[in-house]
Amino acid sequence: MIGLLKIKSFFIEIGELTYFARRFFKELFTKPFEFKELLRQCYNIGNKSLLLVGVTGFIIGLVITLQTRPTLEEFGAESWMPSMVSISIIREIGPVIIALTFAGRIASGIGAELGSMRVTEQIDAMEVSGTNPFKYLVVTRVLASTLMLPILVILGDTIALYGSYLIENTKGDVSFLLYFNKVFNSLEFGDVIPATIKTYFFGFAIGLVGCFKGYFCQKGTVGVGLAANSAVVFSSMLLFVIDFIAVFVTDIFFEI
Fold first, then answer.
1. How far apart are CA 249 and CA 254, in angstroms?
2. Signal sequence span per UniProt (predicted)?
3. Distance of alpha carbon 106 from alpha carbon 184, whole angstroms
4. Residue 117, CB half-sphere, CA atoms under 13 Å: how many?
5. E-only strand ranges, the chain
6. Can you give the pLDDT at residue 5?
7. CA distances from 192 to 57, 97, 134, 199, 247 (A)
8. Fewest CB atoms within 10 A around its CB: which of 56, 132, 146, 164?
9. pLDDT tens for each residue of 145-159
C-alpha cells in the first residue's frame, strides 16, 4: 500500500513538473523580458560554478589517464592514450560528471533560494505588488542554467584534456603539440556536436527542477532543506534519463 502511494505521488510530481515546464515556455515568449536579471543569473551561476568545474575537469583527466595507462602499456598501445581519453571525456564522462557537480551546486542553491522566498512570503508579496514572480524568478534562472552549462562543460573538457596531457608528458615524455594533434585527429563532429547539444538539456533539467522544488516549497524552514535536497536528487536522476535518451537517439541517427 505504501509503495503504491509513493508511485502515485511520483507520477503526480512528474505531471506537475510537466505543467511547470509548459508554463515556463509560455512565459518565456511573453513580455516583459527580464534581460538584466537574466544576465545577473548567468554571471552568478557561471561564476559560482567556475572553480568547481575546473577542479572537477582537471581531476577527471588525471584519474582517467592514470587508471588507463597501465592497461595500455601491457599491450604496447600507449600511443592510443590521447585518442581514447579525448573521445571518452568529450562524449560521455565530461558532460555527465560536470553536469552532476553543476546539479549539486546550482539545483540545491536555486531550490534553497526560492524555497526561502516562498517561506518568508516574498513571492506572495511580488504577486500582490503586480510583479510576475514566475517570469522574474523562474524563467531567468532556468534560462541561465541552460545557457551556462554547455560553456562550463566545454571549459571542463578542455581542462580535463590538459590534465591528461600532464600525466602523459610526465610518464611518457609526450610533447604538447603531439598530444593535442592526436586528440584533434581522433575527434569528429559526431563526437562533439551530440555531446554539446545534450548539455543544453542537462542545464534545462537542472534549472527547471531546482526552480520547481523551491517555488512550491512548503512546511516552513524545514521545507527549504527538503527542497534543496530533493532538487539535487531529482535533477541527478533526470540527468541519467536524459543521457540515456540522448545516447540512444545519437546511436540510431549515426546507424542510419
1. 9
2. none
3. 32
4. 23
5. none
6. 65
7. 17, 16, 34, 11, 13
8. 132
9. 999 999 999 999 999
Identity at 245, one-letter amino acid code: I
Check: CB of residue 98 under 8 Å from CB of residue 57: yes
Q: Which amino acid is at 92?
A: E
pLDDT value for 1? 58
Torsion over CA: 247, 250, 255, 256 (sign)? positive
| Residues 6 or more apart whose Cβ sits within 8 Å of residue 115 | 213, 214, 217, 223, 224, 227, 228
C-alpha cell at 81: 592514450
Q: Please count the residues of the chain.
A: 256
- Spans of the chain below 70 pLDDT: 1-6, 254-256
Residue 124, SS3 per DSSP: helix
Distance CA 66, CA 129 (A): 58
* Cis peptide bond prior to 70, omega within 30° of 0: no
Measured CA to CA, the distance from residue 26 to residue 14 in angstroms comes to: 18
Which grid cell is 196?
A: 554539446
DSSP helix, strand, coil percent of the chain (3-state; round to 5): 90, 0, 10
Give me the pLDDT at residue 79, please. 78
Query: Rg (Cα) of the chain, in Å, rounded?
Result: 21
Q: Which residues contact 89 (CB under 8 A, 6 or more apart)?
A: 60, 61, 64, 157, 160, 161, 164
State pLDDT tens for residues 40-59: 999 999 888 889 999 999 99
